[in-house]
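Reviewer comment 2.1 asked that we show a complete input and output for one of the modelled complexes. We chose the nicotinamide-adenine-dinucleotide case, as it is the one discussed in the main text.
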Amino acid sequence: QTIPNLKFNNGVEIPQLGLGVFLVKEENELKNAVKAALETGYRHIDTAMIYGNETYVGEAIRESGVDRKEIFITSKVWNYDHGYEETKAAFQASLDRLGTDYLDLYLIHWPSPKYIETWKAMEELYHEGKIKAIGVSNFQIHHLEDLLAHSEVVPVINQIETHPEFPQNELHEFLKQHNILHEAWGPLGQGKNNLLEQPVLVELGKKYGKTPAQIVLRWHVERGIVVIPKSVTPSRIKENSEIFDFSLTPEDMEKIASLNTGKRYGRNPDDEEFLA
Ligand code: NAD
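Response of the prediction step:
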């Protein structure tokens, strides 16, 4: 199966499915996961400085033999690296660890208070061609409104917690209106709350001959969302990519939408103590 690309507001394209590597720190486990994904046809890896695995991601890519230029790499600037000079240094350190001279996408990981200065540094790195596209993560509508009012470059994407129990409907509409792509972190609910055992998902899995995880990922894809499910198990990495050969009916999309509880599983982006 071919993984389709989505187009950013600056014309650059992103594969709609990537591999997430949060919490994968052990060298062999990380490298085997990245290599399994690349062998399966993934061309998009989502890492971050704070995940502590950029070095292994870079090594795994080189060891895979796949050309760097064919692979879309995302990394993110962490809260304590916010600020103009700090961000420039953090970005260079990420490049050095990854062993590359450009990033496809660099994100502000959380809306820490100095995100405007951070963004200024990212705009310059973007204009210099060192980053193909710049975006944000965990931004609420009020953060985006502030950023849009005080900067030049419109973010290409916002990576936010999104799954059937927390579909982010309001933010999704806002992003659509502003031509900013929606990327889901925790697309499978991070293995929490037994989300994948929900009867609706199990039943739809039987109907389509797919697993509940594939049903959930397909639901995101139909919403135009970029997904980066995490797995270190080759069979699941493959399973998670086999979502482009079927589609859900509008009625089935609605059934999944009915799982909305309005409750996030993860951290609230307005938690000031965490962001400081
Ligand atoms: P996820 O929703 O991708 O869930 C991962 C868990 O689901 C795995 O631990 C695995 O046990 C399970 N799983 C994977 N494939 C499965 C399958 N086919 N069937 C059954 N279970 C399966 O959660 P995540 O890893 O937190 O999110 C994905 C990626 O998003 C991360 O790896 C990271 O790259 C990114 N992320 C970003 C932020 C952020 O603040 N920007 C926060 C969390 C995660």
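The chain is about 40% helix and 15% strand. We note this here for comparison with the apo prediction described in Section 3.2.
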